[in-house]
Write a structure and sequence with these properties.
With about 300 residues, the chain is an all-alpha fold. Helix 7 packs across helix 9 and helix 7 packs across helix 10. The longest helix has about 35 residues. The radius of gyration is 26 Å and the shape is globular. Keywords: Cell membrane, Membrane, Transmembrane, Transmembrane helix, Transport.
Length: about 300
């Protein structure tokens, strides 16, 4: 008689490798980051060493008194974050950038996703391909292209400044401004909003709109009462895919924003690579992660209340 394999063994064989991957590459680094946020910085940067090598024996010896946690753990990094208003203001500005980028992406992606979803089936794959086509080129190359477009010698700046000259307005700078940061952030993240919205809108039953029209509902009423509520899962998914990466972005503000367009991602990079203040960089990372988790939980709560 053939033995039946244990269902629990099959379950672990399937879920074990992904779980192990998440444990090694996500959970463990997160715990290291949390522990580093409570450490003292080293004399030459990095973290204050906990062990040192004995020159005579070659053994690793403990530098601190483990009986007193204050020898190697501190809350000064978190106190520095909350006491210095510059860091809080930078967080608020980063949230503003990410939120504005998300709203603009929704406004631009919704009609585009609706157009693709309602196009003939033979054209949908081509239209979706055009949406993801920018991913075929390198991210930095696309950002450098925007630097040329928004630069003082670019066609965009020259055309706009020529138009403003008719009204007696002097030439305006577009590169290294808040405007440049928002434009490039929207450009980079727009496909991440279009795709989940398209996947949602494609599944809508058009018979519901026809029934509402037969009952006398206007085009706006049909959209607001039927299409928009049914598309909210796609809106929430797209907002998460746009807001979270935009919040931690550092390459775009660094290249097209200049000193005025700096975001929290730039500050974290600066603390780790330039200042080598790893404990404070870890603190900023933890605060950013905690803020994102709080907003995700808040959005989940709001969406559940909307369904009830």
């Amino acid at each position: 008689m053939q033995k039946v394999k244990s269902p629990s063994l099959a379950k672990w064989l399937i879920s074990g490798p992904p779980l192990l991957y998440l444990l090694i590459f996500f959970a463990v680094p997160t715990l290291i980051m949390i522990f580093s946020a409570f450490r003292f910085p080293g004399e030459y940067g990095g973290l204050m060493p906990l062990l040192e090598t004995n020159a005579e024996t070659g053994a690793r010896e403990v530098l601190i008194n483990w009986q007193n946690w204050q020898d190697f753990l501190t809350l000064e990094n978190f106190s520095r974050f909350f006491e210095d208003g510059v860091y809080v203001e930078l967080f608020i500005k980063s949230f503003w950038y990410a939120g504005l980028t998300t709203l603009i992406c929704i406004a631009l992606a919704y009609p585009l996703a609706w157009l693709i979803a309602r196009s003939p089936k033979k054209y949908r794959d081509l239209l979706v391909l055009l949406v993801i086509l920018p991913f075929w080129s390198n991210f930095l190359i696309r950002v450098y292209a925007w630097m040329i477009i928004l630069g003082p010698q670019g066609y965009f700046a020259m055309t706009v400044n020529s138009f403003l000259a008719w009204f007696g307005i002097g030439p305006q700078q577009f590169l290294f401004t808040h405007f440049a940061v928002i434009v490039v952030l929207v450009y980079v993240h727009l496909p991440f909003m279009v795709l989940p919205l398209y996947a949602n809108l494609e599944k809508h039953d058009m018979a519901l709109l026809d029934a509402a029209q037969d009952l006398g509902a206007s085009a706006w009423q049909r959209f607001w009462r039927i299409t928009w509520p049914l598309s909210l899962p796609g809106v929430w998914a797209g907002a998460a895919l746009v807001f979270i990466p935009a919040l931690g972005m550092f390459a775009v503000p660094d290249l097209v924003g200049g000193t005025d367009g700096i975001m929290v991602g730039n500050l974290i990079k600066q603390q780790f690579l330039d200042s080598r203040d790893w404990p404070f960089g870890a603190t900023l990372s933890i605060m950013l992660t905690a803020s994102v988790l709080f907003l995700a939980a808040l959005a989940t709560l709001i969406s559940r209340k909307g369904k009830s």
